Amino acid sequence: MDPLDRLALDRTTGERAGVTRRDFIRVVTLAAASVGLSSTAAMRVVEAAAKGMKPSVIWLHFQECTGCTESLLRTSHPAIGNLILDLVSLDYHETLFAAAGHQAEDALHKAMAENEGKYVCVVEGAIPTKDGGIYCKIAGKTAQDMLTEVADKAGAIIAIGSCASFGGIPSADPNPTGATGAPMILEGKTVVTIPGCPANPYNFLGTVLQFVALGTLPELDEKGRPMFAYGRTIHEHCPRRAHFDAGRFAHQFGDEGHRQGYCLYKLGCKGPATHANCSTLHFGEVPGAWPIGMGHPCVGCTEQALAFRAPIHQTIDIERPTPPDTYPPIHADQGGVNPVVTGVGGLVVGAALGGAYMASKKLGGGADDKEE
Ligand code: SF4
Ligand code: SF4
After folding, report:
1. Tens of pLDDT along 254-298?
2. Most CB atoms within 10 A, among 58, 118, 249, 351?
């Protein structure tokens, strides 16, 4: 059997799972491209996974709804949850573990001892700090102590979701438990943050892939977010942007502007101040499955200053109200546009956005996306 075909087998029953070899290679290659890895590096990851060379992952759950794990597991076409489980050795995960109590604790400490300095510590959920951190305890330890102990010997630390990145919903006013994010507890350590409520699984996969392939982490912004995913605002690549630039707005849910798909700024959209790639990498592999795509304003869930703090329907200041020079103008005066400049700019922006959008579509598969 082709060693890669083993990846498509269910690990417990030994039967063929929902992930084909082709799906596996396709998603790994596309996710690798999103972080700037070559297809050769992506294939190295695939081959290493086929040989069983997988990094150990210890996944901690604290104050959260488990929505980030659920979002990862609920993907399909292909099942990215299975793909991630094929790429890494998930040695501790309270939601997915069959083990409990002492067995789970033993697995945690064994994985830490055997992979010291090399394992990936993934944190999901906020960490309570008030009253000595007593509001979240696992195996008699506070979340704060458990995180510090596991992160201390990790090779990489990833905070998945807004809760782990900066406190998220548990930290909303009046924040009765003093909830905060992993970077605030682990000051001085590099913590990759993948905020989002839930986080987009592909941003997580891209980060893990780079660590697996090269042993490095992606370029991060000042909040620890990978630049490949959080380098631009939603507003910069929103499909409703032309309506914003032309002054066409929805004023109420269900009004004519809303039905026409106009800009949602006046309904409180936080897209102009929210750094994320939701508009080009949709959720659950369903094209259009993201808040603005379904007619709801962006709530800014990847931004600590906005999510669960700024009222959902309150409008925000726009930092850059005019479109960048590289966008085609809404109403160009005849003869006022340099076709060379516009053409080159359009090509660059079009290639970047088109690539991301097509990646989203390809990741989603489709009726015409037949198996070999
Ligand atoms: S970030 Fe959102 S989806 Fe993820 S665990 Fe927190 S509340 Fe749930
Ligand atoms: S305000 Fe919101 S809906 Fe309007 S263009 Fe910007 S991101 Fe899109």
Report:
1. 999 999 999 999 999 999 999 999 988 887 777 888 999 999 999
2. 58
112 C-beta closer than 6 A to ligand 1: no
84-132 pLDDT, tens per residue? 677 788 899 988 888 889 999 999 999 999 999 999 999 999 999 999 9
Alpha helices in the chain (DSSP H): 21-34, 39-50, 67-73, 80-87, 101-114, 143-152, 161-166, 182-185, 201-214, 227-230, 241-246, 256-259, 339-364
Q: Which atom of ligand 1 lies nearest, measured to the CA of 66?
A: 5
Q: Residue 78 carries which DSSP code?
A: S
| Distances 158 to 4, 135, 187, 271, 300 between C-alpha atoms, Å | 27, 22, 14, 25, 20
4 lines ligand 1 (CB under 6 A): no
pLDDT at 206 over 60: yes
Dist. CA 287 → ligand 2 center (Å): 18
**Ligand 1 atom at minimum distance from 195 CA:** 1
pLDDT band for position 350 (cuts 50, 70, 90): very low
Cα separation of 147 and 60, whole Å?
A: 8
- Tally the residues of the chain: 372
Distance between CA atoms of residues 257 and 265, nearest Å: 12
Q: Binning pLDDT at 50, 70 and 90, where does residue 372 land?
A: very low
Which atom of ligand 1 approaches the CA of 71 most closely? 3
Atom index in ligand 2 nearest the CA of residue 249 equals: 4
Dist. CA 166–CA 184, nearest whole Å:
8
What mean pLDDT is predicted for residues 135-156? 96
DSSP 269-318: --GGG-B--TTTS-GGG-TT-STGGGT-----TT-TTTTTTS-TT-----
**What are the pLDDT digits (tens) for 151-179?**
999 999 999 999 999 999 999 999 999 99
Strand-strand pairing, 127-128 and 179-180 = antiparallel
CA distance 98 to 71: 20
Q: CB 172: neighbour CB atoms within 10 A? A: 13
Please list every protein residue whose CB sits less than 6 Å from any atom of ligand 2: 234-235, 238, 240-241, 244, 263-265, 269, 271-272, 292, 298
